[in-house]
Design brief:
The chain has 355 residues and is an all-alpha fold. Helices cover 61% and strands 0% of the residues. The structure holds alpha-Diphosphopyridine nucleotide (8NA) and magnesium ion (3 copies). The site of one magnesium ion has 6 residues, from helix 3 and helix 17.
Length: 355
């Protein structure tokens, strides 16, 4: 199998950054009206006509959109992998906690900040312990492990390594299997997207076959039953996606009912994957001049709810699949720290090639 090129690495991290920065503008709204979203996006594009005084022709509004916890934590994952040249739980945990201490107001989940506070204590000698103590020992099932995981499939090319280290990286904050299995699913989606050119059907079949294996272990079965879910809940939602993709149109209400737009990994990771696969085709409601990657991010945000996190996950998958060519510079330049994302992507590509 040929190695993916550097454009996929840049696409992945730029897509993730865009999803977070654009999605954050609409985060938590139960309804996002598409005309409002499209009008907001037009404001990012270079103004038509002659440039204003002191402005280069075609230049965008630069770095006006801030990133949130999704990107802050993704960067810690990437920086740890780059510093250690492999997954190192102590180093990664330290970076999460130090980053939180430096900039606590990035919009972190309500409960995860307790993990950071415990990790910062000199008394902490097992970095997985604070996450296990969350929610009276049940662990978090939030989407925080999944939203930041792209660095794992950008480091490891072997699928067993992708599963193993996606799980461990998520377990630093998310000890419930409904949290870390969401991270495994998101990591597998980026892994498959990096291979490129897979059809929707093959992409989904491979995810289903991996997740049926991942979700068959005792803890996954116990955790799902304890929360009142059926067995293999991620696999079941992937099969629902397959049904959706076979229909000529699927109303937003059905997507929200079956897949969701929430902060639980189970109510957001499948939604991101569905959005990516659905947006391989044109959408009658989204102007045709947008690329597939732009369409993916627009569609995610139009669903409302946890828009930044769903769009960052779908953006990472779409960026890995389509490459940086589908990202217009005006969009990218609207995001805080976009140049650092490019540098991180190039360093990750180097690491991937060396391993
Ligand atoms: P987390 O571990 O704090 O989980 C997020 C939330 O999920 C918790 O605060 C709980 O409400 C709920 N939750 C998780 N596990 C359990 C459980 N076992 N029992 C009961 N409730 C539970 O943080 P995280 O890192 O997973 O969160 C990530 C999300 O929060 C991202 O969307 C991120 O952007 C952020 N965020 C979301 C919103 C929003 O309204 N969508 C707003 C601000 C921040
Ligand atoms: Mg966020
Ligand atoms: Mg969010
Ligand atoms: Mg670029």
């Amino acid at each position: 199998r040929p190695r993916p090129g550097p454009g996929r690495f840049r696409g992945c991290l730029a897509g993730a950054l865009l999803g977070d920065c654009l999605g954050a503008v609409f985060e938590g709204r139960s309804v996002v009206k598409l005309p409002d979203l499209l009008s907001f996006l037009r404001g990012l594009e270079p103004a038509p006509g002659p440039p204003e005084e002191g402005e280069a022709a075609g230049s965008a509004r630069r770095e006006t959109l801030s990133y949130t916890d999704d990107t802050a934590m993704s960067r810690s994952v990437l920086q740890s992998l780059l510093a250690k040249r492999e997954f190192d739980e102590v180093d990664m945990a330290k970076r999460f906690a130090e980053e939180y201490k430096k900039e606590p107001n990035r919009g972190y989940g309500m409960a995860v900040v307790n993990v950071f506070k415990k990790l910062l204590s000199p008394k902490c000698n097992d970095v997985f312990e604070p996450a296990r103590a969350q929610f009276n020992g049940k662990g978090s099932y939030g989407n925080g492990g999944a939203m930041r995981v792209a660095g794992i499939p950008l480091t490891y090319s072997d699928v067993q390594d992708v599963k193993k280290f996606a799980k461990l990286s998520a377990e630093l904050t998310h000890a419930n299997s409904l949290g870390y299995n969401g991270a495994i699913l998101q990591a597998l989606a980026v892994h498959l997207a990096l291979q490129g050119e897979l059809s929707k059907e093959t992409f989904l079949e491979q995810l289903i076959s991996h997740m049926e294996d991942v979700e068959a272990d005792d803890k996954s079965l116990t955790d799902a039953r304890a929360l009142g879910f059926e067995d293999l809940p991620f696999s079941r939602r992937l099969k629902k996606i397959k049904e959706f993709l076979e229909l000529s149109s699927v109303p937003k209400a059905d997507v929200l009912f079956e897949l969701g737009n929430g902060i639980a990994a189970l109510r957001s990771v499948p939604t991101a994957i569905y959005s990516f696969l659905r947006c391989m085709e044109a959408d009658p409601d989204i102007p045709a001049h947008y690329s597939n990657l732009q369409r993916t991010i627009i569609y995610c945000i139009s669903l409302g709810g946890d828009t930044d996190t769903i769009a960052t996950m779908a953006g990472a998958i779409a960026g890995a699949y389509y490459g940086e060519e589908q990202i217009p510079p005006s969009w990218e330049q609207s995001c805080e720290a976009f140049q650092e994302a490019q540098k991180l992507a190039d360093s990750m590509y180097e690491l991937y090639c060396q391993r």
